[in-house]
Amino acid sequence: MTRPRVEWARWAGDLAGPRFAEFQTQLAGHNAHRFRPGLPEEAASDELATDERVGRAEIEMVEALRCAVAPLIAEIPTEPDGFIAWFEQLKHTGPGQGDPLFPWLATTASIEQMRWFLFQEVAGEAGFEDLLAMTQVKMPVQAKLEMARNFWDEMGRGSEKGMHGPMLERLAGFFQLSPTPETVVPEALALGNTMIALARHRRYAFHSVGALGVIEMTAPGRAALVDAALRRLRIPAKKRLYFAVHAVLDVKHSEAWNAEVLHSLVAEDPRRARAIGEGAVIRLWHGARSFERYRCELGSFKARLLDTSCLAAA
After folding, report:
1. What are the tens digits of pLDDT across the range 232-273?
2. Domain with 183 in it: what CATH number?
3. pTM beyond cutoff 0.90
4. Domain count across the chain
5. CA–CA distance from 277 to each of 104, 128, 264, 310 (Å)?
């Protein structure tokens, strides 16, 4: 079947429905190629024109997201200590926190359901270390140093076996996961696409700081429950190491990120508080939408055959 030609500028602001799904699918496909190292002779003749169209569309998408989350960030403090207190409260009150999906995975999900969940998660993973590398460019020294320490941990402190990206790849290989944009729910694609857009466009650099920081802060609890599910299903320890590591290490990362990155950036310029907070809430908002879609899809395979409500959400 021939895919519709995505209208980048007109569809970018859609946050639901068929145009949202098609836009996110094609943007994910574009992202899968554009950051790969290449050679001059391999570049397409229309590369610059395409990059401009996609770049404008990404900005339209982020601006639509900023409008969507505006009611959730009306009272962001701009004083450093007050902002950190507000930010840390997102762990308890932010969108998607305490979602029942993860306790259900830990105690109930079958191996087939777990495989489906991981299929989506692998596809939505934009590569934390690469996002961090793009975000830290020209950041102030104190924030940059903590980002460098975080990056070094993501890179296994110089050991290939300890690199976090390959850990996830090993788990994907064990489950034989090969997701493509066309086979993944658009909510998961939108999460990864948005993280890339925030890191790519320097106007959203502080939004990216907030989004990366809130991942570090909120991921450990979910990672621990996913790891519990994998242990229950008798997945070998070496294959589930990605989630086991993030259940512990990200707690330390978050504490250092909030103190060394967020506090210092807001202390230097209070205007950054709103951008950082917006980025964090946008990331959580996408997560909440993904978890809701996952619950719908995973409810019961038999029920899904009889009830098209999940498909209607696409």
Report:
1. 999 999 999 889 888 887 678 889 999 999 999 999 999 999
2. 1.20.910.10
3. yes
4. 1
5. 30, 19, 14, 31
